[in-house]
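Structure in, sequence out. Go:
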C-alpha cells in the first residue's frame, strides 16, 4: 500500500492559491475591460456631440452657444484623458495579478514534480515488496512440493 505524499497539505494549499489567483486575475481582466468600455462610450459621446456641433454651426449659431459647445467638448476630452489613466491603472493591476498567478502556478508545479517523484518511488517500493512476497510464496510452495526423497 503506497504511503501518503508527505507534502500533500502544501500541494493542496498551492493548488488553492493558484485557483484564487486565477479568479482574481479574471476579475481584474473584467475590471480592465469595463474601463475600456467606458472609454469607448466617452469617444462615442464625443463624436455625437461633435456631429451635433457641426450640424448646429451649419444652421447658424450664436457666440454663447458656440462657447458652451467648446467648453463641453473640453470637459469630454478631460474625461477621456482621465479614463485612459484608469485603463492604465487597471492594466497594471491585471499585469501584477498575472505575475502573482504565474508565481503561484510555478510553486504548484514544483509540488506536482515532487508528488510524481513520490508516486514513482512508491511504485518501485510496492513492486519490490510484491516481488519479495512472490519469491517467498514460490519458495514456500516449492518447499511443500518437495518429496521426502528430495531431502
Amino acid at each position: 500500500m503506497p504511503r501518503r505524499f508527505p507534502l500533500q497539505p502544501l500541494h493542496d494549499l498551492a493548488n488553492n492559491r493558484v485557483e484564487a489567483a486565477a479568479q482574481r486575475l479574471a476579475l481584474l481582466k473584467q475590471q480592465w475591460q469595463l474601463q475600456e468600455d467606458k472609454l469607448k462610450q466617452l469617444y462615442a459621446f464625443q463624436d455625437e456631440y461633435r456631429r451635433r456641433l457641426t450640424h448646429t454651426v451649419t444652421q447658424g449659431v450664436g457666440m454663447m452657444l458656440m462657447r458652451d459647445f467648446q467648453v463641453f467638448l473640453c470637459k469630454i476630452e478631460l474625461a477621456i484623458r482621465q479614463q485612459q489613466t484608469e485603463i492604465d491603472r487597471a492594466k497594471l493591476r491585471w499585469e501584477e495579478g498575472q505575475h502573482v498567478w504565474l508565481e503561484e502556478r510555478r510553486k504548484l508545479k514544483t509540488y506536482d514534480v515532487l508528488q510524481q517523484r513520490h508516486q514513482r518511488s512508491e511504485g518501485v517500493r510496492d513492486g519490490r515488496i510484491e516481488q519479495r512476497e512472490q519469491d517467498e510464496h514460490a519458495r514456500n510452495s516449492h518447499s511443500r512440493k518437495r518429496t521426502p526423497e528430495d531431502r
